[in-house]
Task: structure prediction
Amino acid sequence: QVQLVESGGGLVQPGGSLRLSCAASTSIFSIYTMNWYRQTPGKQREMVAAITGGGNTNYADSAKGRFTVSRDNAQKTVFLQMNSLKPEDTAVYYCNAVLGMKIYWGQGTQVTVSS
Result:
């Protein structure tokens, strides 16, 4: 079982930045693909960004050019740097770890973009 703990959410004004972190409990963190998802009430959870164990990244169109996903395998942590935030980025953000058929989710961190 892998435990994931997100942090870094909060309230930010439009145009501002936040950096989310997700710390994992597994000793083999480096081989997991790590993903960031977000969800708003009444909507399906959507993928925002992904990073493989080898460092390849992928972004949703809504995140391209504004968000950057990175990982520190020594710290067993994945990050999501979010810049130029918009009100429509308001959501609960979840990290997820995938290795084959094994999928683990964190409990989420709230991001609110509002003036």
Remarks:
- The radius of gyration is 13 Å.
